[in-house]
Amino acid sequence: MKKIKYGIIIEAVLLLVLIGAFIFGGGNGGEIKNFMKETFLPRFLTEENTEKKYIKWVDFDVTAKAMGRAYDLDVASQSEGVKLNWIELLAYLGARYGGDFSKYKDKDINSLAEKLKSGETTMAALTQDMKYYSYYLEVYTAVLGGFVGEYEIESVNVSGTEPDNSTAQGTETAQGTDTAKGNDAAKGNDAAKGNDAAKGNDAAKGNDAAKGNDTAKGNDTAKGNNAAKENDTVKENDTVKGNNTAKENNTQENSTVQDNSTGQEGSTKQEESTEGTVWEKKYGLKAYLPLAKYFPYSDYDDFGVSRTYGYKRKHLGHDMMGQVGTPVIAVESGYVEALGWNRYGGWRIGIRSFDGKRYYYYAHLRKNYPYNQELAAGSVVQAGDVIGYLGRTGYSTTENVNNIDTPHLHFGLQLIFDESQKEGNNEIWIDCYEIVNFLYRNRSETEKVADSKEWVRVYDIKDPAAEDFEKNRDNYNITPHNTDEDMGEPINENGGTNQQSSPTPTEQPTGEPSNDTGE
After folding, report:
1. Would 462 disulfide with which of 129, 152, 358, 458, CB 3.0-4.6 Å?
2. Other CB atoms closer than 10 Å to residue 57's CB: what's the count?
3. pLDDT (tens digit, 9 = 90+) per residue, 146-204?
4. Residue 351: what are its φ and ψ, rounded to 5°?
5. Beta strands 386-389 and 380-381: pairing type?
6. How many CA atoms lie within 13 A of 339 on its CB side?
7. Residue 122: left if φ>0, alpha if ψ -120 to 50, beta else—which one?
8. Rounded Cα gap, residues 443 and 439, in angstroms
């Protein structure tokens, strides 16, 4: 309505000027024309009045199975004549399916890959007449652009052995049934049901026991007492007892691969260090699951479900239920943009990708000891680093308060195509459930620091993106913020809201870090 109103005003003014030119212009037509061209029109055609063209909404519907297959084809092609790009493969399918990956079939992507590898055609030729290919390519690049690439990973130096270049991606199984955990999504209060709860010391107790077939297989059994202990007393038995069971049903469809605890596949060179480890140069998945390896968790697709604290709104993230103290892992390398208390998310960390397209939001962290103590706004983190600890803080205007009933990590992913989308009503948050299932194939192994509450990763990584950022930090526009604490509808002293009715859709924010963080 505002645009229409301004358009009418501008047209009326132009009409008056033209009328004046005819009536009073006489022989000054050239001067009037110059005035219109150089002074009058530019005033109404400034950048503020010209709408920028950028993507304003995304519905990311790619399944873990599709991501897994595209990724495997990409990695396998790196030693071949025609190198495939997993995001381009997915964008082609996205354009073909209209973004609806419920239509996905392995044969579609396999056929596409064979055509490209045979030299029969190219992606440019295939997509030149696809109307929405460029849209899906930009969207999927914004979501997945930092996940795959070259890096170096530290691993144990086994004397007299060479790196196995044929080892598949570091995962127990390739994504087959669209979930790394089979049908084990925990529902409700995450209580184990019937005979599915693990027994003795091998399962988490209380309300945090995972539902279904969540007991680990093979070497996924956690070591010792993995839950960090702290002065933050939690309800019932929120800490793990005995040997923690890692969550998944490892049997999946058609593409079982080896577990590679140190990271990923495709090692090309080893450089021995002085500590009995080696640095392996690799190409592959360099993004990680948000929770550390060997720590159990349960989840289901809860994006968009209703939340009522403060005011009625949609949940704009993905909840991963687990034990208090579980190490929280940086999914992608980036820099800390937000660190502190948010009345919805409690203790939270916001990490921005180096290309500025992704903002990772980790909320409800542990009371009293929420973060890696070395972190501050502006700190650089690398994918797989321990950044904080799972907890149940939040839903309070008072800092360091546990008001969340079930301990969990709220993990959110915001896309930013233009900086105006970072905060406010134009934010884009996507469903992370399938992404988390895909990332299950790469989990960061951690170990506890003696006589402390800290955990650290076992195997370090060298991400070229982080190294480039450090070298060129002055060229990046880093704007750490901690400004989202006082936004939103008024909350009374009892933690409730005085709001009588929910805002209209145009008034509702769409995600952190405005007044709605989506928890």
Report:
1. 152
2. 9
3. 999 999 999 887 654 544 444 443 444 333 334 344 343 334 333 333 333 333 333 33
4. -120, 130
5. unpaired
6. 21
7. beta
8. 7
